[in-house]
Design goal:
transferase, 2 domains, 39% helix, glycosyltransferase, 17% strand, 384 residues, TIM Barrel, eight-stranded parallel beta sheet, metal ion binding, tRNA processing, single chain, three-stranded antiparallel beta sheet
Amino acid sequence: MNISEWSEGFQFEVLAADPNSRARLGKLTTPHGVIYTPAFMPVGTYGAVKGITPDELRDAGADIVLANALHLEFRPGSSVVSDLGGIHRLMNWDGPILTDSGGFQTFSLKRLIQQDDDGVTVQSPVDGSKHALNPAKVIEIQRKLGTDFIMPLDICAPGQADRQTVRCALDTTLKWAVESKKAYQETKPVHGKPQALFGIVQGGVHEDLRQEAINSLLDIGFFAYAIGGLAVGESKEDTWNTVELCTGKLPDNTIRYMMGTGTPEDLHKAVSLGIDLFDCVIPTRNGRKGSVFTKNDKLNLRNASFRSDVNPIEDGCNCYSCKQGIDNRPAFSRGTIRHLIMSGDPLGARLGALHNLTFYLNQMNNMRVKLERYLPNTEQCRTV
C-alpha cells in the first residue's frame, strides 16, 4: 500500500516560499476542510479547548484543533467517544482535528509510566486505572476517535538526557513507527472519513541521531512528519539548531510540524526555519491566569496596577474581549478582566484565553499574508 492509498483525501502543496529564509505558505487539504499554513492548533486535550466554544474558535481564526488520544482514553474512553459519533461530533467541530498519541506523556507523566520495548503501561491520573498501550493499540484508539491526523506512539527523552538514553528512546520510537504504520494499514477508519498518519522525528540534540531518524522515517513512509523531543529542557540554541537540521533534511512537499511550541517569538523563529504547523498550551493556560499577550509586551492582569485600567488588553485587537462594547468602550477592560480573574469568575479566565488565542492566530495570519507577496500570481492565488 503506497502513501496515496492510505492518505486519500489529504494533500499538501507549497504555494509560495520566502527566498530569504525557509518560511513557506502552504495549503493542506483534508476531508474536513482546507488549512493554510503556517498554522497554529489550539489545544483541546479532552476534546474541548477549555472554556472556548467552537464558534469562538472559528471567529478567532482557528482552522484545526488538537486533542490528546491518551487523555481521551483515560476519560471518557475512546469507545465512548466512538459511541457518541466520534470526536468531531463530541467537539461539535466540523474542521480538521489532530490527536497526539500520548508519547509526550512518557516524559511528563514519567512517575505514572512503566515502559518496555513492546509499549507502555500508564496509570491514569484521573482514577488510578492502568492502561496498557502499544503502537497498535494507540492506532486503534485514534481510529475510534476519528481524528483527521494520527500520531504514532513514541518516546520523548528529556532535553538534558545522556546520549545513551536518547539512543534507546530513538531505537524504540523507530521500532514503534514500523509497527504503527503496519497497524494503520491493517485497519480502517471507524467513522468513514480517511485519516492520515504522521511520523515523529526524535533524537534529542544529537545531529547524527536526528539524521538517522529522518532517514528511517522516510524509508518507512508517512503522509507528514513531526519534530518531537524539543522544548523539554534543552537550550534555545540547541532547539533551533535541531529545527534547522530537520527542516533542511525533511522533504519540501510534506508538512513539518513542531510539537508543543511555544511563545510568539518561538513561532516566528520556527516559521523562518521552515515549520508549518504548531500547537501549544501557552496561550490558553496563561490567559486563564491573567497573563495576556500584546504586540509590545506580555501583561499580568493580576497586578494591582490594572485595578482601574479602562483600556482593552490591546488596542485594535478584534477578539471578543477587546472589541467595542457599550459607550464606545472596550467590551471588557483590563480592570474588568482583572476583577473577574481575582474573583474566581470563569468569565475572566475565558476572556484571557480567548484574547491570547486570537493573538496567536492573528500572528499566524499575519505571517501568511507576508508570504503572499511571493505567490506566483497574487491576484489569482490570494489565500488569506
